[in-house]
Write a structure and sequence with these properties.
The complex is a heterodimer of chains A (about 425) and B (about 80).
Chain A lengths: L24 H8 L1 H7 L5 E2 L6 E6 L4 E7 L12 H14 L7 H5 L2 H14 L3 E5 L2 H12 L5 E5 L4 H10 L2 E5 L4 H10 L5 E6 L11 H8 L6 E5 L14 H4 L8 E5 L9 E5 L1 H10 L1 H4 L6 H16 L2 H19 L11 E7 L2 H13 L2 E2 L2 E2 L9 E6 L6 H21 L1
Parallel strand pairs in A: 3-12, 5-6, 5-7, 7-8, 8-9
Antiparallel strand pairs in A: 1-2, 2-3, 4-10, 9-10, 11-14, 13-14
Chain B lengths: L2 H15 L21 H15 L14 H11 L2
Helix pairs in contact in B: 1-2, 1-3
The chains are: A alpha/beta (about 425), B mainly alpha (about 80).
Chain lengths: ~425, ~80
């Protein structure tokens, strides 16, 4: 292929192949191009140990195990391997076994699920909570469960793919407003006064680490009595707010949020999704969210571990405080290197490189060879003009690990950018 | 292939993918967003038009395009 590096996954979605089990012919050609293969070599590299701040990967670049400082796993509080969490999961496994062996509405709901859902509802200060076995399933379930054809889902353009997919599944019309552009949001709401509307924002935008302008968004939505706000606190739960309830708590606007979503795979260290809202809509969702009612309930040892994770993260603020200390220290060091960190205000820190895919992957190879697990984020996951690296800071990082990481970033990224 | 022929194909796909729009309303100096298209609609219109015109342009090359007319110009560069 002549210009393989100009193409991306965005270019092969439509498939003209007469056989549905054959990808497009040019997709094969593109994937088999050595330049494409080199880029894809960064994906699905196996971790050979727990996703700790220092871990080991099977490096595709070198074809052998490699010890690395891990800046990619979103194990923000290190709870996935916390000894108390592991012990709770072992006890859950011994008592209940591996699987729930049923859909939640039938035999899948264990006392563990009911206890954890109650704990999450109380934590988020909402009336009730529904659990999903993955974060993506949660967002699909919410949107498909409450929106119908003729409704309007108004989303920030940087909302997560799972919200968009849920919107597509629901049959509702979707309208995106420019990122954090409240004037644009107001125009859309004003034009659609006759529709049932849900406005969706993220607590922390996952590729940029910035926050929604929630005070302004709430002010605008308040002008329309029937407009409701949904917030995806996947990257902000247990991190933002005095009690770790998320960005809505941070802004003091929890009572303005109609429906609050979170994942259990990031700061919680497990897997799953949850939705908190008023008791009536949660009961309704249980009947209409297919990813809830037609899916096996979450694995019992995972739920047992998650109950402990929530206890640990909320009994005091030790882990959260450490995460913020690390985030501030890391960010300060990166700012000293004059790197473009966008508008991050969180533990998700992008290092924006620009439009050159070649440069991004050249830096990515060098970074990994020097012992840093920091993956490139390429178009179409981010705009073609702002390809980047994305750091997920963890409370588990030591000062020494951050210093070493910054030295590698300086050598492999900052110096190359200066040469440009 | 002429620019007019390309514009005809793009307009046809806009009409097929967007609701409540009349062909005479479409001004090629405007963006599809001005007619209520979201980013998924735009991907659909662009992909269907490219398929019909038998051209393939990397999305990265389309990132800077703002209007329907600019899209037609870009297609024309790649048309046989």
């Amino acid at each position: 292929m002549k210009n393989a590096l100009s193409f991306s996954l965005a270019d092969f979605f439509f498939n003209d192949s007469p056989d549905v089990l054959s990808p497009p012919s040019d997709f094969e050609e593109w994937m088999n191009d050595p330049r494409t293969q080199e880029c894809f070599g960064f994906f699905e590299q196996q971790l050979l140990s727990a996703p700790k701040s220092s871990t080991e990967i099977l490096s595709n670049l070198e074809g052998k195990p490699k010890k690395v400082i891990n800046l990619t796993s979103y194990n923000y509080l290190g709870l996935s391997f916390h000894p108390e969490v592991i012990q709770a999961a072992i006890e859950g496994l011994q008592k209940y076994g591996l699987g729930a062996s049923g859909a939640p509405l039938l035999s899948g709901t264990l006392d563990l699920h009911a206890k954890f859902a109650r704990m999450l509802a109380d934590f988020k200060q909402k009336e009730d909570c529904i659990l999903f076995s993955s974060g993506l399933a949660g967002n699909l379930g919410i949107m498909q469960g409450i929106l119908r054809k003729g409704d309007l889902l108004v989303l920030d353009e940087k909302c997560h793919k799972s919200v968009i997919d849920g919107g597509t599944l629901s049959g509702a019309r979707m309208q995106f407003f420019d990122h954090n552009d409240t004037e644009h949001l107001a125009q859309i709401l004003d034009k659609n006064k006759d529709k049932r509307i849900l406005v969706a924002v993220d607590g922390v935008y996952s590729m940029d680490g910035d926050l929604p302008n929630l005070p302004e968004i709430v002010k605008i939505c308040d002008l329309f009595p029937d407009v409701r706000i949904y917030i995806d606190e996947a990257h902000s739960t247990l991190i933002f707010g005095a009690n770790g309830r998320g960005v809505a708590e941070y802004f003091g606007l929890e009572d303005k949020i109609g429906i609050s979503f979170g994942t259990l795979s990031k700061s919680f260290g497990g897997v799953g999704g949850f939705v908190c809202s008023n008791a009536k809509i949660i009961r309704y969702l249980k009947g209409y969210a297919s990813s809830y009612s037609f899916s096996c309930a979450s694995s019992p040892p995972v739920v047992a571990g998650l109950i402990k994770a929530l206890e640990i993260a909320t009994r005091d603020s030790t882990l959260r405080d450490k995460l913020w200390e690390n985030t501030h220290y890391f960010k300060k060091n990166l700012q000293d290197l004059k790197l473009d960190l966008g508008n991050t205000e969180s533990q998700v820190i992008p290092i924006i490189i620009g439009s050159s895919g070649e440069l991004l992957f050249e830096m990515a190879r060098d970074v990994q060879k020097k012992g840093l697990f920091l993956l490139p984020i390429d178009f179409p996951a981010v705009p073609a003009t702002s390809r980047r690296f994305r750091i997920s800071v963890s409370s588990q990082l030591t000062k020494d690990e951050i210093d070493k990481a910054c030295n590698i970033i300086e050598d492999s990224i900052a110096k190359r950018l200066k040469k440009k | 292939m002429t620019k007019e022929e390309i514009i005809k194909v793009i307009k046809k796909n806009i009409l097929e993918n967007l609701e409540e729009i009349d062909e005479n309303e479409i001004d090629i100096n405007k963006s599809m967003k001005d007619y209520g298209a979201n980013s998924l609609d735009i991907i659909e219109v662009v992909s269907c038009s490219m398929r019909e015109l038998k051209i393939k342009i990397p999305r990265t090359e389309l990132a800077e395009i703002n209007t329907i007319g600019q899209l037609a110009d870009k297609f024309l560069e790649h048309a046989e």
